[in-house]
Amino acid sequence: MIVEASAATIGLALAPPAPRIRDLLTITARPEIVSLAGGLPDPDLIPRTRIREAGAEALARPDAVQYTETAGWFGLREVIAARESAAGSRSVDPREVVVTHGSQQALSLLAQVLLDPGATVVVEEPAYTGALQVFRLAEARILTVPLDADGMRTDRLEELLDAGERPALVHTVSNFHNPGSATMSAARRRHLAALADTYGFWVIEDDPYGEIWFDAAPPAPVADHSDRVIRLSSASKILAPALRVGWLRAPRPVCAAVELVKQGADLCGSTLTQRIAAVMLSDGPWLAGHLERIRGAYGARAAAVAGAFGDRVSATVIGGGMFCWLEFRDGTDTAALLEAALDHGVAFVPGSAFAVGGDHRATARLCFTTNDESALAEAVDRLAAAHASADRRRTQSTQS
Q1: In the Cβ-directed half-sphere of 97, how many Cα atoms lie within 13 Å?
Q2: Where in this chain does the record put each Aminotransferase class I/classII large domain (predicted)?
């Protein structure tokens, strides 16, 4: 299904879910609630000692506490360019990198550069809420195409294009999708890139989770296949959210336009945290060991929630990232289930929070990274009890 919504409709239809998620995160701050709702890394796996050491190394230079270039400290851009080059088959120039205040700022800046009010944007359904907020504020006309186990349905995108739609950009979370868990197949990456070349739209390849794989690394980036792909990523999920270091990789004219807009937004980011990130990201042996540790921990936790509810749900295979996406087969309304879950001391995000035009009443997103296996086992038990309670209520309501 291809779903269309005007900017005015989107403003009405999508404004409520974000406050509900914020309210839910406030509730989950209560100590008695085991939260599967947020999208947070485990604080015990954030390398505080290494951050402290990198901070001391950075502070040995006086310019670490001075302003830096709007596009980011060039030393970090060199590190990012080298890592982006190693991730694919294309050589990336540091001048094709802009460092941002998290990848969300990169998305916001790109919307200002690439979108006029009323411009068409294509997103996946279910959709990443952060992208929806940005595109709604840009007054975009949003179309959706479905997501399945192999990522964005690029065949459905091609149908949309054949029907005459001409999007300014297409947004995809290509690896370990938030919220849908899926990873785009290599064939679909090539197809998406070919469509971008043929029809002249930009692709934003949003990839904050790509290094958190469990069994095998994801396919080569979409950006390997076309110059019309802009890649976003972040140090938040593998180092620390508080560093607020994200980046975009794009052709130099796009970077120049983003830099101009960024000058009006914040002039420049934090030289100190950018230098800290550069120290850590360039320390190959340490980083490899750190990534191995978090992949092992999160992989075990993914396994702990993957079997929740058994054959009552279908679940996307979790190859990496932070989320498990469930679809109930038994008529469960997850908004009602959430009410029962909170009564049982556990929280998650109902799938309706990620809907644009699709029906996600039977779906749910669980985040497995913040809690260890013992806490996750308890959370699954509480969810099972909540589901049984919601089942009884639904049965009683039907009988009455």
Answers
A1: 24
A2: 44-383
Gap between the Cα atoms of 83 and 256, Å rounded: 21
Contact in structure between 373 and 355 (CB atoms under 8 Å)? no
pLDDT for 30 equals 81
pLDDT for the residue 22: 61
Q: How many CA atoms lie within 13 A of 285 on its CB side?
A: 0
3-state secondary structure the chain: CCEEECHHHHHHHHCCHHHHHHHHHHHCCCCCCEECCCCCCCHHHCCHHHHHHHHHHHHCCHHHHCCCCCCCCHHHHHHHHHHHHHHCCCCCCHHHEEEECHHHHHHHHHHHHHCCCCCEEEEEECCCHHHHHHHHHCCCEEEEEEEECCEECHHHHHHHHHCCCCCCEEEECCCCCCCCCCCCCHHHHHHHHHHHHHHCCEEEEECCCCCCECCCCCCCCHHHHCCCEEEEEECCCCCCHHHCCEEEECCHHHHHHHHHHHHHHCCCCCHHHHHHHHHHHCCHHHHHHHHHHHHHHHHHHHHHHHCCCHHHEEECCCCECCEEEEEECCCCCHHHHHHHHHHCCEECEEHHHHCCCCCCCCEEEEECCCCCHHHHHHHHHHHHHHHHHHHHHHHHHHHC
Q: From the CB of residue 56, how many other CB atoms can be counted at a distance below 10 Å?
A: 11
pLDDT digits (tens, 9 = 90+) for 363-372: 999 999 999 9
Residue 392: the pLDDT is 81
Would you say 308 and 332 are in contact if contact means Cβ atoms under 8 Å apart? no
CA dist., res. 48 & res. 64, Å (int): 19
Residues of the chain with pLDDT under 50: 1-19
Distance CA 129, CA 126 (A): 9
The top-level CATH class assigned to 49-282 is alpha beta
CATH 3.10.150.10 is the classification of domain 16-39+287-389: no
| Residue ranges of domains in the chain | 16-39+287-389, 49-282
